[in-house]
Amino acid sequence: MAGGDRSVRISVAVDEGHCVHAHSVWAICARCVNACPGGAISLPQGAKAPVVDEQRCVSCGQCLSACSLGAFSSPEFSERRLLERIEKEGSIRLRCFLPYGELESLAQDGGSYHVCTCLAALSPGVLYQMATERSCELVTDRCRECVLFAKVEAGMRRNFEDARALLSDCGRAHHLWESSPLFLPKRVNDSDSNEVDDDATVCAPAPNVRAVFHSIFVSVRDNPPVKRKPLPLRALRKHVPEWRASLGEVWNMTSHVSHDGAYLWPVHVVDRNRCRACGMCMQLCPTGTIAHGFGDGRFRYSFTPGNCAECGLCFMSCPVAAISRERATNAAPFDEVECFECEAEPCPRCGLPNFASRGEPVCRLCQKRLGT
How many helices (H) and strands (E) does the chain have? Predict the structure, then answer.
């Protein structure tokens, strides 16, 4: 499996429309700024997106996985391209962009694939994909010697551990391991790639996940997904990061073991006694994870855990503090979950839902506007 990406230095671009700061002034996210080891990313006061200083960028790619909404991209590297280039059969061995001038020794290493970024740039979704059907080794022998490690350690730990937790839910956690354990449990012996976890015995054989991911990436690139017909109160301009959308497709095709799970998905908790059905949370949600439905005398509030970017805009923007967030295991995280449903009728003043159980002539939003 010798080979790798053609470049050892990447450039990054920012899509302003995908940044959480472009959606609301309530946004307080600074993940990209905190993750950048070279201090190349800044967020000017009042800006709708971060700014990248190309002179200070060290091409580690950490921002690619740090941004929960996928606002960063690179013309030289993408996870879709990585999936297209790796060998279809056999185990996978990934090495980073090697800031030690070791490209000649890398060319002699016929068992590894050279990624043109730091391994911290790989999202949990692509690690899950590569390790679902076969062994995936991450070469971390010299990570602690790297001058970037102190800054990228937190992001690398998060991505590795999240990927292993996702794999654990389908009985394949042992497929993902490190050559020199930093964050993942130590591999017991060389036959681990063929071993079967106790929980995995109840798991059906996985489909050709690489082929599935490849088809999904190509489909997203060439055929933008058709937006679902909006519900009466659903806002537009929604964007689900590519790795989350791909993970959702493959997750639903993979058999999962019958245990409580390891990965903790977000849980959206709404206090129905406080909620005004104003739609503020839904309109500001950048991924369209929150949906309000109103019709046939019923108001429905639903949430899709797997698409949530955990940006916090929903509960920060709620005018009555009706939203809180928890985390829990979930066997079907990409299915809509109903937070609550109740009888409602259109407000005669604004048309928004007015909950019948409250017995008020107009909705609470109009009450506040009218000062009644």
Answer: 11, 15
Measuring CA to CA, how many Å separate 212 from each of 132, 161, 207, 209?
12, 23, 8, 5
The tokens describing 329, both together, are 């295991």
**Residues 60 and 152 sit within 8 Å (Cβ to Cβ):** yes
Token pair recorded at residue 371: 């000062």
pLDDT (tens digit, 9 = 90+) per residue, 149-208? Answer: 999 999 999 999 999 999 998 888 999 999 989 999 887 654 444 444 444 333 333 444
For 246, other C-beta atoms within 10 Å of its C-beta total: 27
CB 212 within 8 A of CB 249: yes
* Closest of 243, 298, 293, 303 to residue 67, by C-alpha: 243
Kindly state whether residue 282 falls inside one of the protein's structural domains.
yes
Q: Into how many domains does the chain fold?
A: 2
* Interacting residues of 94 by C-beta distance below 8 A, sequence separation 6+: 112, 113, 115, 119, 122, 136, 137, 138, 139
User: Do residues 136 and 128 make contact, with C-beta atoms less than 8 angstroms apart?
Assistant: no
Better-predicted residue by pLDDT, 91 or 220: 91
Can you tell me the distance from the alpha carbon of 96 to that of 353, in angstroms, rounded to the nearest whole number?
Answer: 53
Neighbour count for residue 277 (Cβ, 10 Å): 23
Asked if 126 and 83 count as a contact pair (C-beta separation under 8 A), the reply is yes
Alpha helices in the chain (DSSP H): 31-35, 62-66, 79-85, 103-108, 124-132, 149-168, 209-222, 242-251, 280-284, 313-317, 364-370
Query: pLDDT tens-digit profile of 56-83?
Result: 998 899 999 999 899 999 998 988 888 8
Claim to verify: residue 268 and residue 371 sit in the same structural domain? yes
* Gap between the Cα atoms of 62 and 73, Å rounded: 11
Poorest-pLDDT segment among 219-233, 257-271, 286-300: 219-233
Question: Is residue 256 a part of any domain in this protein?
Answer: no
In this structure, is residue 100 part of a structural domain?
A: yes
